[in-house]
């Protein structure tokens, strides 16, 4: 059985590793290549943004290309926000930024604290600019293709990840709590009882989006939690960073679940018996001391080093969250993860 994946980054590599374990040959497609898979091979993607070129145009006409409606609706923030409004799903107040808009106009529409985000292409905090009333800011050169959103004073950030099969069956992971620093995910926590009351609502939101787009595979929805309600921040039509904990803490990882879904294989509800934690290793060189900890599962991406870049991640799992807290407290971490450590310890304890 074969699957092709558009993109050859770390998500594609982890899909490839998951495929090897269950007998699926995963072919990673570089966005600049001219290789097209055979017509009977399903094609999915590890990313929702890619350049328009002869190869990607041809790929989207391939009989095996999945989720064309989802990528068209979700890769652009204007279209994504419009879809959420059409589906009646809660999100932060927002508007399209037009060429003649001023900062004062945006504040009049959305309040004193506003995020302007590039409509397409921005991720991990890039392609974003914060606008505060009383502080004059020059608009970036991409402001003519952007959305503006009211900045939400949220209690915490969570994500719901699930997979939908070719037959329409959907299974879910429990809500994951996430911390971001400078727009980049630093730590994710999955705890059995933390968001039990919100789980049905989160599943309903994800189901609504998946069914509206006839989506097949793993999808993630990031949400703000405010006053006991979920507001959708962003939707990712792919395996997601906040689901990496499933490699250690679930019977079926998000990567295997995605491959099962796109291949029409059995899609049982993954078991998630204990508490799990994922730490992103941002802008750090390889350090073999991460292998000294008996419980740490290191996933290294093999990228060239760059400040703030996701170089790898560490997964931890234990039935008792207090044990996770003990491990985290004793772990030798760089200074850029100290705030994330304190955040996670407060929630685990």
Describe the structure.
The chain is an alpha+beta fold. 27% of the residues lie in helices and 28% in strands. The protein has helices spanning 10-22, 54-59, 68-74, 77-87, 103-110, 199-213, 246-249, 254-263, 321-330, 338-348, and strands at residues 2-6, 25-29, 43-45, 94-97, 113-118, 128-132, 146-150, 156-164, 170-172, 176-181, 184-190, 217-226, 229-236, 275-282, 297-300, 310-318. The strands form 3 sheets. Strands 8, 9, 10, 11, 12, 13, 14, 15 and 16 form a 9-stranded antiparallel beta sheet that branches. A 4-stranded antiparallel beta sheet has the order 4-7-5-6, with helices on both faces. Strands 2-1-3 form a 3-stranded parallel beta sheet. A hairpin with a 5-residue loop joins strand 8 and strand 9 (170-172). The mean pLDDT is 93.
Summarize the structure.
The protein is of the alpha+beta class. The chain is built from 10 helices and 16 strands. The strands form 3 sheets. Strands 8, 9, 10, 11, 12, 13, 14, 15 and 16 form a 9-stranded antiparallel sheet that branches. Strands 4-7-5-6 form a 4-stranded antiparallel sheet, with helices on both faces.
């Amino acid at each position: 059985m074969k699957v092709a994946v558009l993109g050859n980054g770390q998500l594609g590599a982890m899909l490839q590793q998951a495929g090897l374990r269950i007998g699926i040959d995963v072919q990673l497609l570089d966005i600049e290549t001219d290789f097209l898979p055979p017509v009977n091979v399903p094609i999915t993607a590890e990313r929702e943004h890619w350049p328009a070129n002869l190869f990607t145009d041809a790929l989207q006409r391939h009989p095996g290309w999945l989720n064309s409606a989802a990528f068209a609706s979700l890769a652009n923030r204007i279209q994504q926000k419009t879809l959420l409004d059409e589906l009646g799903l809660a999100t932060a107040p927002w508007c399209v930024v037009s060429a003649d808009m001023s900062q004062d106009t945006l504040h009049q529409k959305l309040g004193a604290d506003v995020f302007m985000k590039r409509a397409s292409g921005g991720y991990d905090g890039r392609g974003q600019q914060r606008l505060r009333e009383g502080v004059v800011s020059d608009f970036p050169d991409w402001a003519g293709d952007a959305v503006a959103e009211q900045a939400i004073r949220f209690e915490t950030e969570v994500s719901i990840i699930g997979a939908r099969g070719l037959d329409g069956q959907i299974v879910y992971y429990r809500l994951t709590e996430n911390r971001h620093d400078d727009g980049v995910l630093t730590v994710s926590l999955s705890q059995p009882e933390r968001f039990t009351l919100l789980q049905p609502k989160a599943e309903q939101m994800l189901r609504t989006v998946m069914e509206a787009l006839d989506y097949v595979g793993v999808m993630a929805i990031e949400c703000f939690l405010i006053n006991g309600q979920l507001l959708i921040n962003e939707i990712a039509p792919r395996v997601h960073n906040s689901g990496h904990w499933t490699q250690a803490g679930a019977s079926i990882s998000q990567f295997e679940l995605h491959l099962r879904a796109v291949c029409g294989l059995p899609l049982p509800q993954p078991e998630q018996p204990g508490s799990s934690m994922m730490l992103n290793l941002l802008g750090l060189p390889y350090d073999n001391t991460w292998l000294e900890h008996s419980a740490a599962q290191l996933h290294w991406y093999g990228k060239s080093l760059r400040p703030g870049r996701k170089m790898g991640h560490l997964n931890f799992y234990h039935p008792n969250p207090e044990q996770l807290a003990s491990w985290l407290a004793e772990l030798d971490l760089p200074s850029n993860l100290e705030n994330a450590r304190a955040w996670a310890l407060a929630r685990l304890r």
